[in-house]
Amino acid sequence: MSYTFEIYIADGQEHFLHGPAGHIKHTHYPLSQSVLEWMELDVKPIYDITERLQTDLQQLATEKIKRLEKPIMEGLALLNSYHPYFAYLRLEWTERLKQARQQAYVNMENMLASDELIQLPKTLEKTQKQLRVLWNDVLDVDVADEPIQGKLSRFYTASSNSSPRFAFGSLQLRYALMEEGTFTEVLKVRSLLDMPDFFVRECLRRELPFRICKNCGRYFVLSRNKNAEYCERPFAIPTKTCKEIGALNQWERKKADSPALKAYTREYKRRFAWIRYGKTTEDIFYQWAELAKLNRDACLRGEITVEAFLEWLKMDM
Ligand SMILES: [Zn+2]
């Protein structure tokens, strides 16, 4: 084999060493991030890409022409853009295609039969279900606040439990000194599922606390702030994270309760009614409303006191 795909944990980070010999890349993410993303990954595009890959692979198997490798490599690169674990499939298939080419693509049919790549979307959906149940029953701090080992053994032994349970496999590990200066277990990835398996064990071993984000509904790890209610993923508007949106929502809630806003709303309605009674004109009213809004916001920002604002509201204009 002429490529490396290894993962390990050091300094609270997931590390990935991957690439063809001589071009090994090192990427890292916060611990649990890749497995959470795997759990939440949208399967729809994965179905589309693997379906097309299957067609392309079969075409190559039939026609045995080198240029037909190109769309396959593009499909694998596209797949990789959805999740870092797919980098493994990309490397593995680059290697397989190289071997197939050397043998004039004669044994490609065997290579494709029940392959991991073809089974991928189904496997993904299945593990997603298993992981969600595991997260809910064992790793979610809001479900039952008790030691993880107790929850875990009950989860795996309860005969009444008919929910899909994640099956741990056997992993090929070595224990080595890595460049972070830490001796740690290093996983040699031999199948896609080795990766969630490896990281899930670590989440359990470290008893990491997880919670469902109040904004996006996805799990996130509670790191510094154990009371956090929002994750820090980018949400919808890519420049805002759930945490920032959560802070905004909280500000909106606090603002709605503030005496300045209540007084403003009351006064606005009162003066708006004056237009109908001919006590004021629309022009005068809207001029007042503009100024009132400026003063209200200054008050909400703490630039003028609530008392001063209430006084101002009483003034005639
Ligand atoms: Zn979120």
From TrEMBL:
Pfam families: DUF6076 (PF19553). InterPro entries: DUF6076. This is DUF6076 domain-containing protein.
